[in-house]
């Protein structure tokens, strides 16, 4: 497997890079059924080729960083399906290998980010958009550490601590990642200028300001409009490169289990995000390869 010649942090010093888009919407476009509680992580065992194909679609669209299909992959979640710890470790490592395989198809170097989703993603009840699980920092650290260690052992370029709804959980994830030997980015899910749990973003970003292991800080899985101010705050408070990958802007209706409303993701926002300090720029839910290709073109034309 080929690995980019320079670390991701060094690449960010040279300029912004395009992230991929939503993995689940691309998998659904490929005909995959994601109704299982494991969501896209089910495919690590049942149909890994679909995951590699989805990653490849984004690489071909111009993504320079691809995020693994491990967001909802946890030892606890796999155990509910009768998967033991040894096999779960192998599946977590496979998520990195599949992304690396797709990265090799890029005309330019492509870095691999191993996704570490929040505790609420394992619950599969939407609580990752609320936080406040009733667990302390120490308990959350114990939950995250084994998965982080397994993913780090597969050799990703960075760990994506992503869609984090709560500053307490961010503290736990950073603690769990300490000493793993892999840099991280920290990305909150937000509403306005607060985390989903209601903490001021200013306070939430401070957690990463003095942590050398953190190479980028920002937001994802949020409204595109909310990302504008968040990018400015992340850059001003941490002095670090900013990562930003919002949703399409459509709203999820849990009753009908469908998306509604207009898409407001506009690749032309890239100029403002870049000027404010964004260096990792992509999309999350419902942002597909077509939009990522537009984003890549916008960055090239800057």
Q: What separation lies between the terminal Cα atoms?
A: 32 Å
Give the strand content.
15-25%
Order of helices and strands: HEHHHEHHEHHEHEEEHEHEEEHEH
Enumerate the spans where pLDDT stays under 50 for 5 or more consecutive residues.
none
User: Looking across the biggest beta sheet, what order are the strands in?
Assistant: 1-12-9-8-5-4-3-2
Radius of gyration: 17 Å
E-strand count: 12
Derived from helix and strand composition plus strand pairing, the structural class reads alpha/beta
- Tally of separate helices: 13
Structure, explained:
The two termini are 32 Å apart. This protein has helices spanning 8-14, 23-29, 43-46, 48-61, 75-80, 85-103, 119-123, 137-153, 167-177, 201-209, 224-238, 270-276, 289-300; strands at residues 17-18, 65-67, 111-116, 158-164, 184-188, 190-191, 194-195, 214-220, 242-245, 251-253, 258-260, 278-281. It is 44% helix and 16% strand. The strands form three sheets. An eight-stranded parallel sheet has the order 1-12-9-8-5-4-3-2, sandwiched between helices. It has a two-stranded antiparallel sheet with strand order 6-7. By secondary structure, it is an alpha/beta fold. It is built from 13 helices and twelve strands. The longest helix is centred in the N-terminal third of the chain and has 19 residues, at 85-103.
